[in-house]
Each structure stands twice: as C-alpha cells, then as structure tokens.
C-alpha cells in the first residue's frame, strides 16, 4: 500500500499528546528524545516507541516536518511548509533560515540532468550568533 492509497490513520490520544509536546517546543526543533521527555513527564504510561511511531505518522501526514540532520538526531518542526534550516556546529541548535524556499530547483535539475526530484532539504552548518559572539569574546581574552 502506497502513501497515496494507504488507509487514513485515526487520531489517537497519544498522537494528540505528541502533537501538544511538539507545539510546546515550537521554535526549538526538538529531537524525538526531547519530545518523549515532555510526553513521558506528564503521561508516564506512554512508551518511547509510541512517541516515535506517532512522530513518524505526523511527519508522513505533513502535520510536522522531520528535519534530517547528518551525524545527529532528526529534529521535528511544527512549521511543515518547505523551508531551510541552520545548524550550529558548536552548540547543536537548529534554526529556521529566514529566506525564500526555491521550489524551482527541482525543475532545474529535471531540465538539466533528467533527474526527477521528489523533494529536497537544505541544512546550512556554521556558528549561531551566540556561539560566534562567545568565540570572538574568547579570542579577545586570549
């Protein structure tokens, strides 16, 4: 059964708890472990597997966005519309990049390479403003 022909999934209490946890952490791009900790703190009967499974369902349904982070844990974003991310190499924070999303990249790749793109993500890596300031301060102090 493909995603297009799959039977609709029903909303469950556990899925609502997971979504509430994602909402409460909005803007922080939490990991599945972060979300589990929030859910488990108030509902200890909800298992880690249940949280992880429901994150997968929510991402598959397009209600949240799974941000794949190379060499790190996937992050989740309440903002499910396509956009880019920034990852700090020092503190590990993941932020939304405030810039236009270039949906036409897929068409360009198809035209140029004959490659049918089904989606793409871009994760810029570097230093966040706080870590840059801390590094500059440390350099000044010697």
UniProtKB/TrEMBL annotation:
Entries under Gene3D superfamilies matching the protein: 3.30.1490.190, Winged helix-like DNA-binding domain superfamily/Winged helix DNA-binding domain
Source organism, top-level taxon: Bacteria
Alphabetically ordered keywords of this record: DNA-binding, Iron, Metal-binding, Repressor, Transcription, Transcription regulation, Zinc
Protein name per the record: Transcriptional repressor
Co-factor requirement: Mn(2+); Fe(2+); Zn(2+)
Provenance organism: Candidatus Aveggerthella stercoripullorum
GO BP field: negative regulation of DNA-templated transcription; regulation of secondary metabolite biosynthetic process
Residues bound to Zn(2+): 88, 91, 128, 131
UniProt key word Transcription regulation: yes
